[in-house]
Amino acid sequence: MKLKLAYSNGKIFDAYSIHEGKALLINNGHIEGIVSEDEIPEDYQIRDVQGANICPGLIDLQIYGTGVDLFSSELTKESLLSIDQQLLAQGCTSYMLTLATNTLEVFEEAIRVFRDTKTRAALGLHLEGPFLNPKKRGAHPAELIQQATVPILKGLLDGNSDVVKMMTIAPELVEQDCVDYLNEQHILLSAGHSMATYSEATHAFDHGVPTTTHLWNAMSPLQHREVGLPGAVFNHATACASIIVDGIHVDYEAVKISKKAMQERLFLITDAVAACQKGIYKHILNEDHYVLPDGTLSGSALTLLQAVKNCVEKADIPLDESLRMATLYPSRLINRTDLGTLEVGTVANVLIFDADFKVKTVVLEGEEL
Questions:
Q1: Into which family does the record put it (predicted)?
Q2: Domain boundaries defined on the chain
């Protein structure tokens, strides 16, 4: 039920502002404003958060599943809804459900299931593959990686751009006519699993590929005579990059370097998978990350709030900036001005968490979950 709610006695993080001694007002599913606590209207129900932090709901642009629910291995409405529910409980109120390299038939079935399922938080599908560089395939099966052509893309995506919202590609292997077609379909392109040189990556950033998938992982290295994809995204004026801050995919010192170089162009993802013993991707939990049976790193066990905590405690990034990396910056990349902030009129997706980074309350479209 959507009530008139006022969250008070907390620290409110709204984009570039931090408010104390004020209350966040929610009305009819949207943010009504931030006011002094003595200005809360009488018809609002007051929620005392007891000193907790209040911020926009978190946004994850790359996640495969959580717990024991891996969408690509089930391709069912039930698995999708279970993932949705679990992510909401973690404070992630918007996400791109991701599928790794697979057959086109699996992608087509995933699109069908997603279209037929009414989720509460999923923004769309992120296809990580199959148009990747096999030399940097990571956990992706080499036999399923293929060359992109416009006819293949049209067969998969025509009429489905309302579901498929994002795609990771190796830009050095995808011709410009394919990039142009994907841009015409309004699909956000990300450079990843790539051996792109500095020149190739920069060309891609200048011609329709605005971001990069899991910086440092599965890409050409930064070396002193060829700085590769990392060097290209560091030096570009607008190119963005996601990063997995679990201390395993990327060392925390590399996170610090990346943040200094990229500032607001760097954002957080989890790249989280789930325990799975069937299908192409058999993910085995190894303490705090997942591996394939052969030991290949295959995904994180992060929540996005844990990534924020790691940024604060391990990478020396202030809490307000760490939160922007999980809210404002991804919303900016996907052009959703109604998400990622607590500005008046935006969707009332809100996370309230304590000093130990434990979730206290999640609000979705004005409704307390």
A1: Belongs to the metallo-dependent hydrolases superfamily. NagA family.
A2: 5-56+340-368, 58-333
